[in-house]
Amino acid sequence: MPLTFELCPDRMIGGSHPCYIIAEIGQNHQGDIEIAKKMIKMAKDCGADCAKFQKCELEYKFNKKALERSYTSKHSWGKTYGEHKRHLEFSHDQYKELQKYAKEVGIHFTASGTDEVAVEFLHTLNVPFFKVASTDANNFPYLEKTAQKGRPMVVSSGMQSMEAMRRVYQTVKKYNQNFAILQCTSAYPLEAEDVNLRVITEYLKEFPDIPIGYSGHESGISISVAAVALGAKIVERHVTLDKTWKGNDHEASLLPTELAELVRSIRLVERALGSGIKTMLPCEKPCHDKLGKSVVAKVKIPKGTALTLDMLTVKVAEPMGVAAEDIFQLVGLSVLEDVGEDESVTPEVVDNYGKRVKS
């Protein structure tokens, strides 16, 4: 399996490719398609790669009693849970309208299909990838059917164990090579103590041949940025236009200013991660030329003298002498000319210095 793959047309993820940032609109649109469009545009303006929604066919996701149960929460849009969910659910035609708008704006568009019928609809909609919500991570018939459709998949792992995620990996891998797993804790808002970012590191060891990411529900952006520093190649965060709106997700969502700062910070961290190769960089040369230390004679050393360590010291010197780290290489070598006390011991005055360093 590849560590990198094309998640969306002309957009690779994994490896050295930039982190893919998903703005999870979910159902924070209040059931209003015009608000949904504003949020798509906001996601694009803030620099996100994808605007994502949540699609379900209610009778296939919930049983009758679940839909009929009383729902008296301050976040409710109806007397029953079914009425509440119907208010927030866009029709197929509305999804097509939103997809068209996202294309006009220039941002990728997808959704979590939270039941098999919803996945079928999203497949006909030709979304670039399927997002699997944490609630379906252990729904193995669903995972098999979704994986068999051949589209890339991004699987969240809230409420799951490592053993369950090993099963998820094996189940999806059997049918689909192009998928990623996201560390996630399903709490809204999420406290820092429950984030468990170290799972990203464990996932990277457990599943080294797929990209690993992070789906966060915490307040602020710092933890999500840290996830990228740990190796997350996808970051998903809920977004909102107003944290006081109805809905459990708004409090754990990012405002436009926060989303823009998240994108900026992730891109900054990506630049800072570097190659992992430790060497003196060109930007360090001015400091090295000014303050880099080298070997200096502690005492006057006559021509022909075999050097001993007690004759030498390390200082900031002009001109720069033998590199400080090579001082032990000089012991036993002879000087080809007199070297005054506190003068630089340059490579040219030490017999066979170059040969010993190379060997």
TrEMBL record:
Which superkingdom is the protein from? Eukaryota
The question of whether Secreted is a record keyword is answered with: yes
Domain (AFP-like) spans: 294-353
- Alphabetical list of InterPro entries matching this protein: AFP_Neu5c_C_sf (IPR036732), Aldolase_TIM (IPR013785), Antifreeze_III (IPR006013), PseI-like (IPR051690), PseI/NeuA/B-like_N (IPR013132), SAF (IPR013974), SAF_AFP_Neu5Ac (IPR006190)
Catalytic activities:
aldehydo-N-acetyl-D-mannosamine 6-phosphate + phosphoenolpyruvate + H2O = N-acetylneuraminate 9-phosphate + phosphate
Arranged from A to Z, the UniProt key words for this protein are:
Antifreeze protein, Secreted, Transferase
Q: Which GO terms describe its biological process?
A: carbohydrate biosynthetic process; carbohydrate derivative biosynthetic process; N-acetylneuraminate metabolic process
Q: Where is the signal peptide?
A: none
Q: Which Pfam families does the entry link to?
A: NeuB (PF03102), SAF (PF08666)
Which cellular component terms (GO) are annotated to the entry? extracellular region
Q: What class of enzyme is it?
A: transferase
GO molecular function terms listed in the Swiss-Prot or TrEMBL record: N-acylneuraminate-9-phosphate synthase activity
Family classification: Belongs to the type-III AFP family.
Question: What PANTHER family does the database record attribute to this sequence?
Answer: N-ACETYLNEURAMINATE SYNTHASE, SIALIC ACID SYNTHASE
- Its recorded name reads N-acetylneuraminate-9-phosphate synthase
Q: Which organism is it from?
A: Neogobius melanostomus (round goby)
